[in-house]
């Protein structure tokens, strides 16, 4: 008599612990993602994580990153390629929704993941455009300067206006592992950008500015300081930044689909716009 095929219901969903980290890195590499151990540690420090385990092996991951009570992002949803088609993605999403509580939710979907998220009530809201490449040699803009610790409250305020949620915890973490640049108007911070290690090199983001010109200057601040280095920027289609990034040698190499649940259109603050994401996982 043949054994019955193993069902997804036999897979256990457990809290993401330190002993799961190595397996999670391996899963993200299997998916073609560039995340290092340090990149997972950043996300885990800010998130509640769950893993799917079968016979002691990690076969799936999901993280929920809350921004206080304002919203949460669901990210790092990965299913081992040998386990697909068994309902594991749905089980991971069930666990994520439970962890998120009643917060409004955001995520960036792949084309393959889109149908699953739509079944959970997520709606498309836009497109993420991933740009990366080796930085060219450009002159440093005169309008920007390195941020100081005293600028962090102003940076957090601008980010909240642009993103629509309080991400002070994320910004404080990024300040510890990377660096910020700012633009000032009348002595006050009017825009900022962050640079930090990620994946194959470094990522510029978030970038929040009053207009496209200021956003370019903030990105130029870091490009000028990293000639020949591998840089990545995740922007959105509506910002208009993508063609300029390509001109700087940062080619468009892919992206994702932004989604929300419920579909509530944030009232945009006319003073600031998010021109580049902290990451596709963290928004």
From TrEMBL:
- Record Pfam families: Acetyltransf_18 (PF18014), Acetyltransf_7 (PF13508)
State the name under which the record lists this protein. N-acetyltransferase
Start and end residues of each N-acetyltransferase domain: 11-143, 142-264
Keywords attached to this entry: Plasmid
- Source organism's superkingdom? Bacteria
Which InterPro entries does the entry link to? Acyl/Acetyltrans_Enzymes (IPR052729), Acyl_CoA_acyltransferase (IPR016181), GNAT_dom (IPR000182), YitH/HolE_GNAT (IPR041496)
Checking CDD domains in the record gives: NAT_SF (cd04301)
Its ancestry begins with:
Bacteria, Pseudomonadati, Pseudomonadota, Alphaproteobacteria, Hyphomicrobiales
SUPFAM superfamilies, per the entry: Acyl-CoA N-acyltransferases (Nat) (SSF55729)
